[in-house]
Amino acid sequence: MTASFRRALGQRFNPAGILFTVSFALRQPHLFLPHLSVRDMRSIDWAALRQVGFRGVVLDKDNTLTAPYSRSLWPPLADSLRECVQAFPGQVAVFSNSAGLREYDPDGSEARELEESIEGIHVIRHEAKKPAGSAEEIERVFGCPTSQLVMVGDRYFTDVVYGNKNGFLTILTEPLCLSKEPFVVQQVRKFESYLVSLWNRKRLKPVEHPLRCEAMKCVKDLV
């Protein structure tokens, strides 16, 4: 098995995510529910988030910032990303299950290429796939607790669960480009949506966050 094939397979199949899904779906389904859901990054007022007390932003990569497995920013998001960086200078980073994950990007080449394409925004190098792992590396990068950070991503099972179990404010975006996703990922998305719709019908609420009410005023086009 070549390194490139293993990397591609690993990014599509996430055993840690499946184990966390089974565990939390049975015991803690509220961890799957984002604090806020928006169409994409353009729906977020970054300056307003800064004003209500947040100190940094953690962004997922695939289908949040870029097309799946691309290393270039999705062009319509350029202005929003620039506004984010202006609101949080030096306090914006990417935390991805592809670029920067040492298992599939051991020399950091994908992370460096992505950093160049997004104007030097830091891509955090890390060991564990979301939703596994703690947020210690992220807290070291930002110099503040996760309760003062925003996690933005497009996946319930990875971005939202990871963010909620580690104390972030979680914002779910809709995927940018489903047509470029592998079939298996599309099927997992359907399963994610089914579970979340079931829990929403049962009126389950996301985990508490001290700034959630203020953050709701910082977005438009809630979904």
From TrEMBL:
Recorded hits in Pfam families, A to Z, give: PGP_phosphatase (PF09419)
Species of provenance: Rhynchospora pubera
Q: What is this protein called?
A: Haloacid dehalogenase (HAD) superfamily protein
Highest taxon, organism lineage: Eukaryota
Q: Got a GO cellular component term for this one?
A: cytoplasm
Which InterPro entries does UniProt cross-reference here? HAD-like_sf, HAD-SF_hydro_IIIA, HAD_sf, PGP_Pase, PGPP1/Gep4
GO MF: phosphatidylglycerophosphatase activity
